[in-house]
Write a structure and sequence with these properties.
The protein has eleven helices and two strands, in the order E-E-H-H-H-H-H-H-H-H-H-H-H. The protein has about 270 residues and is mostly helical. A hairpin with a 2-residue loop joins strand 1 and strand 2. The protein is globular. About 30% of the residues are buried.
């Protein structure tokens, strides 16, 4: 039986604390990648312009590519603690061994890349759903020749549904799992490379469970514009990275979303 590759640990000192260079590199890399993604999102502009292209395979690939870049911009800064927690567990050949042998940096880098890929795959699937919302717009316009017949309903339904979902058990369970990723890793731990992609996809699924209604609101109201993306990125960062405070914050966001729905509905009825 082949013995695991043992790596000699190299450590730096930062503000008087010992840190591993590999983990510092990962954190800095995530911040840099998120910055590049925000810059790319700024230059691409409104995502709905890509969705309004002729519906074919190149358009689908272009939209998913732009969508994934947008998700990198919004989600990756929040992912840094999760990635470091995953690396802390997976750097040992057997994390349940009292004295596990550590894997080398190359193995850890490949495992982390697969973890990212599985995570992003879940958001790519969400992007397909958002694309269907965009593609349904011409059909709705044909079904309702007068846009005002349904135009006022869509944002109200989007905000109200998002507010109700914020308070649902599914959202609260997903949020609790995101706040404690180690429990998710240990429960379904797989120490091989394919398992890294599976665990990344599992974590990504819970993340999507937390924010998919936000993305629908973005698609319907903000057309995935940069201003709206930045605003929701702040909301997601507070919600996902604040532990118990994030749960309370998510409920406050629910009240805000429902309040917006009520205000929009009231204004519409008064204008009739």
């Amino acid at each position: 039986m082949a013995q695991p590759v043992v790596a000699r640990r190299v450590e730096w000192r930062l503000f008087g604390r010992r840190v591993e260079p590999f983990r510092v590199t990962v954190a800095v890399g995530f911040v840099a990648l998120a910055a590049v993604a925000w810059a790319a999102t700024f230059f691409v502009g409104d995502m709905s312009t890509v969705a309004m292209m002729d519906p074919d395979v190149p358009m689908l690939l272009a939209f998913i590519g732009v969508w994934v870049v947008g998700m990198v911009a919004m989600m990756f800064p929040v992912m840094i603690p999760v990635v470091l927690a995953y690396d802390r567990v997976q750097r040992a050949s057997n994390p349940f061994d009292p004295k596990p042998a550590e894997r080398n940096g190359s193995w850890r880098a490949v495992a982390m890349t697969l973890f990212f890929s599985g995570y992003l795959a879940m958001y790519a699937l969400l992007g397909v759903g958002v694309l269907l919302v965009f593609l349904a717009s011409p059909w709705l316009m044909k079904a309702f020749p007068s846009p005002m017949d349904i135009a006022w309903v869509i944002p109200i339904v989007a905000f109200a549904t998002a507010g109700v979902y914020q308070l649902s058990p599914i959202k609260q369970r997903c949020l609790a799992t995101i706040h404690s990723p180690l429990a998710l890793f240990v429960k379904g731990w797989r120490g091989d490379l394919p398992g890294a992609a599976v665990m990344g996809a599992r974590h990504g699924l819970y993340c999507v469970g937390c924010c998919w209604m936000y993305m629908i609101v973005l698609a319907v109201v903000g057309s995935m514009g940069l201003f709206w993306m930045a605003g929701f990125a702040v909301v997601l960062s507070i919600e996902k990275a604040s532990g118990h405070w994030g749960v309370a914050f998510s409920k406050a966001v629910a009240v805000g979303l429902l309040g917006v729905a009520v205000i929009l509905g009231t204004r519409t009825l008064l204008a009739v």
